[in-house]
Amino acid sequence: xxxxxxxxxxxxxxxxxxxxxxxxxxxxxxxHPHASIVLISRSNRSLRVPSFNHTLSLSTWEQDLSASxxxxxxxxxxxxxxxxxxxxxxxxxxxxxxxxATSYPTFLKKGISIVTPNKKAFSSDLxxxxxxxxxxxxxxxxxxxxxHESSVGAGLPVISTLKDLVDTGDEVQxxxxxxxxxxxxxxxxxAPVEGKGGKWSEEVTKAKNAGYTEPDPRDDLNGADVxxxxxxxxxxxxxxxxSINSFPVQSLIPKDLDQCGSGxxxxxxxxxxxxxMDKVKVEAERKGKVVRFVGSIDVASKQVKVGVEEFExxxxxxxxxxxxxxxxxxxxxxxxxxxxxQGAGAGGEVTAMGVTADLIKVLQRIx
Length: 367
Prior knowledge:
The chain is of the alpha/beta class. The chain has helices at residues 17-28, 61-67, 75-82, 98-102, 104-109, 120-123, 126-135, 150-153, 158-167, 181-190, 200-209, 218-221, 224-237, 263-269, 274-286, 348-366, and strands spanning 7-12, 35-41, 46-48, 88-93, 113-115, 146-147, 172-178, 289-298, 303-312, 324-331, 339-344. The strands form two sheets. Strands 3-2-1-4-5-6 form a six-stranded mixed sheet. The chain has a five-stranded antiparallel sheet with strand order 9-8-7-10-11. The radius of gyration is 22 Å and the shape is globular.
């Protein structure tokens, strides 16, 4: 095989999602013998091939990386390394690092493709979003490809579904759903359809202990994660949303607990505020409804919002189980009955599956 037909893959982020991604690559890359992983970088060290004739071992990468004394590489250093590759290159960014996200246009302009679950590249500054589009193959004939399915629904086909609707000329009128596996788990247990449910603080603690929340649960309860996902989807529909501060986002963090020094301190003090959430739940129950934490985009009115809303018990959003996500696309073609995407929307393994699937798509397009 000509070296010019080879594809060289650099992986940034090797913990959590990155570890699952590399494990999945060990199964799929043998079916793509033209592709090889030449760099693995994490926060404190990196591992790379001595020359592009070599490939990193996916059976011993963890030990090899731990034994490496090479520091982590900056985006500019990774770009310099890949610039001498005798073929096409892909950067797989498994981090949530803003500096890496900001570097995407530079990679893309050099023809290097990007595969990532990093929401920050697509939901922060509108100028960065526009620069990514202009630098990619969508705005530049020699630009790299960009795939970021897992930036919204982990392994769920949310972005690809929306892009198909938009690219085929359907009129997207509204998008509504539960976009957070953490919030889904919390509210399904706090306010189940069958009634009762636990105390709010107990459910938050339970979610943290089960690994559904960030180490500091406030990073989930502030609504920013859902807001970022809505910004991404809204921009794909054509709305020019400046940032997550451009629309109302309800935070479930009591104001008095904003300044807690740690997540543990927050959880210790949260029971004193259970009454506030109980009132919200009881008010909905009086109407025969349940509360859920949802996001919605009204495309026609350009309205985006995130927060707690009431739903009839027979509504698909109310009937969710576990940590499932559900996203409903209301469009002209689908009429009164939305196209619904539902399933696990959180977890390292399913998020990595979305990243791996995107990698396969890029390999198929550039090979």
